[in-house]
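Consider a typical record:
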Amino acid sequence: MQYMLIADDNPDITDVLAAYARKEEFEPVIASDGEEAVRLFHKYSPDVVLLDVMMPKEDGYEVCRKIRAKSDVPVILITARGEDFEKIMGLDIGADDYIVKPFSPSEVMARVRAVMRRMVRKEKEKSSENMLTIDNLTINLDEYTLHIGTTKMQMTKKEIETMWTLASNPNKVFTRDNLLDSLWGFDYFGDSRTVDSHIKRLRAKLDTVTHPGWSIKTIWGVGYKFEIEEKS
């Protein structure tokens, strides 16, 4: 079940928004002041929050700050005033959208759908940030796994990080010093031969499974690159 927290000290407004929330298949949770809003937020962990700015005990800005300290849940602020500085302040403290009274309940629900779509998109982008797929190669930095086709390769953490660095920059040449700096850090006391021996071991593992669409190429006198083979 999805919960929508609606915080406003005007029961006429909360009643209308609650009715529309149910049409959108949300279970409304109603708060009449800021302190109650914070308490109900922690109790129900709602999927979206509608906050009136001018509420007793704690205003919507303060409630939004407290929510943002704990959660990235979508928050829409509602106010009777529409001055630009108030909108900017609301967005600066973490609100996702801002609606000025009087409003259409249908518009509010449209805004809710929009911010939730953006949230889903962000989650997808976030989950894809640490996932890389090229041809039959898949690297997952969240799980520190590397697959070639359906074969899970037995790789060390550093080998997976090396593959990620190279494969996420296809056809870019990395010098040995570049790889030392990015993978071992500026304070590492090894030399470029560390990179060569590391790449040699990495290649030996990769070459136990066929991967005709890509390879790690040596650029003599310079370094290495992840090369995607051109299909004829």
